[in-house]
Amino acid sequence: MIGRRTTGAAEQTTMSNDDAITGKIKQKLVETKQKWAAEGRLLTGATADPAKQRLPPGQREVTNWPVLDLGVQPDVSTEQWKLTVDGMVENPITWSWADFMAQPQARRRTDIHCVTAWSRFDNTWDGIATQQLLAVVKPKPEAKFVVQHSYDGYTTNVPLAMFADEDTLLARSWESKPISREHGGPVRLVLPKLYLWKSAKWLRRLEFINRDRPGYWEERGYHHLGDPWLEQRYS
Ligand SMILES: Nc1nc2c(c(=O)[nH]1)N[C@H]1C(S)=C(S)[C@@H](COP(=O)(O)O)O[C@H]1N2
Ligand SMILES: [Mo]
């Protein structure tokens, strides 16, 4: 499946029929989440200060780690995996797994917050800090947003300033174990200061652009930024 996608995969922004190979889009889940956005479900109307409380408004703590995605879970081996960084950067790259592992590695311990109201505390991640990646690719001055593209066709947009946050990692391991297929291995983004839909699983490409272009959930009523402390669930 990965082989068949090499040509033209960079242009792909919507789900293709190829995805049937690894799973089916959970159409009901997509419709439910879209309905939640339209109805403003789960909104408390409150904001909170992360310095004063650990749970963002409307969230509850879980100790398991729920799996949330569109139902298509690509099986990408580290041998097949490639990361392309392109768009408005001085130094576009395509990294193999060996290239990725040759970069300075970083560890972060963070909480994660899903827009469906669960939060999970104290997750330890290993991988490459986005600050390290930015030092390599050197965004051009006009670059203002980063679109994450995944092997399942998922996309999500974040401001470059949030992508560059010191807590943000291209993560390959969780609790010192490789990130499992269901949680987005071999490499996923972890951007803990935004809701978790802003952290793409099965990361394939990072595209630097000069304007805000909505991704999969943003096109379906979810917020363009997604700050859990401001309860930016929907747009
Ligand atoms: N590639 C990809 N990344 C994705 C998604 C997806 O469907 N595909 N779902 C997002 C959503 S809505 C959430 S809440 C988190 C869930 O990550 P988890 O399954 O590891 O908890 O992944 C995000 N990243
Ligand atoms: Mo989500």
Explain what you see:
The chain has 235 residues and is an alpha+beta fold. It is built from 5 helices and 11 strands; from the N terminus they run ααβββαββαββαββββ. Strands 1, 4, 5, 8, 9 and 10 form a 6-stranded mixed sheet that branches. A hairpin with a 5-residue loop joins strand 2 and strand 3. The N terminus is likely disordered. Bound molecules: the ligand Nc1nc2c(c(=O)[nH]1)N[C@H]1C(S)=C(S)[C@@H](COP(=O)(O)O)O[C@H]1N2 and molybdenum atom. Molybdenum atom (MO) binds next to loops. Molybdenum atom binds next to loops.
A few lines on this structure:
The chain is α+β, with helices and mostly antiparallel strands and 235 residues long. It has helices at 2-5, 27-39, 97-102, 130-137, 160-163, and strands spanning 60-61, 83-87, 93-95, 106-113, 118-129, 145-150, 155-159, 169-174, 177-178, 188-190, 203-209. The protein has a single domain (9-220), classed as Oxidoreductase, molybdopterin-binding domain (Sulfite Oxidase, Chain A, domain 2), CATH 3.90.420.
Helix amount: 10-25%
- Kindly estimate the percentage of residues that lie in beta strands according to DSSP: 25-35%
- Count the E strands: 11
User: How does the helix and strand content classify structurally?
Assistant: alpha+beta
Task: Work out the helix count.
Answer: 5
CATH topology group: Sulfite Oxidase, Chain A, domain 2
Number of domains: 1
How would a crystallographer describe the biggest sheet?
6 strands, mixed
* Uncertain parts: 1-21
Our measurement of the CA-to-CA distance between the termini, rounded to an integer number of angstroms, reads 35 Å
Shape: globular
pLDDT averaged residue by residue:
92
For this entry, what is the oligomeric state of its chains? single chain
